[in-house]
Amino acid sequence: MALLYSVVLPLGRRLAMAELRAMAQGLGLHDPRTIGATGNLTFESGQASISGLEHNLEAAFNARFGKHVAIIVRNADAWRRLLRANPFRDEAAADPQRVAVRVMRNPIPKGGENALARYISDERIAVAGGDLWIHFTGDPARSRLLSALGAGRLKGVGTLRNANTLKRIGDAVAPAGAGLVGRK
Question: In this predicted structure, what is the pLDDT of residue 175?
């Protein structure tokens, strides 16, 4: 599973998911599939290194589309752990648009979420499994917290996905025995 930070290309052009799948195939990744139009790519690979996959995907993306975009790779087991770690499961079931996770390349250090305290109004946050979970009690688009995340206050590469997208990705990659490689 690979998550792109952005699908906006130079000159404001948006990435077509067919182009992303073609890029993945060009790297020798097997059965690349996209989920939604926001840069969610599933694939199978014999490459054992998550960081190697991230590097290769980022380099290929830059070469093909003329823009560096951070790409986070998780294997199927890591994705299942991410889904199980959701501290806001009940809220996500009730209103999936109001629960999101900032999936991080490297775990948020202990207390790292404190850098966001001044941007939180009525949101609830929790770090679970090294990722930042957010429950928006109001309209997520009006949250000051979103712009704070984009400004890199968590000091690491990460990308935000809401509970609807998490479920769709989970349905695609979470079955036991999925052939993705990487970290345990």
Answer: 59
Listed range (10-14, 47-51, 54-58, 112-116) with the worst mean pLDDT: 10-14
In three-state form (DSSP H/G/I as H, E/B as E, the rest C), the secondary structure along the chain is: CEEECCCECHHHCECCHHHHHHHHHHCCCEEEEECCCCCEEEEECCCCCHHHHHHHHHHHHHHHHCCCCCEEECCHHHHHHHHHCCCCHHHHHHCHHHEEEEEECCCCCCCHHHHHHHHCCCCEEEEECCEEEEECCCCHHHCHHHHHHHCCCCCCCEEEEEHHHHHHHHHHHCCCCCCCCCCC
Closest among 148, 101, 102 to 121, alpha carbons compared: 148
Q: Is the pLDDT of residue 182 over 60?
A: no
Backbone angles phi, psi at 174, to 5 degrees: -80, -15
Torsion of CA 84, 167, 22, 182, to 10 degrees: 10
Q: What is the pLDDT of residue 179?
A: 38
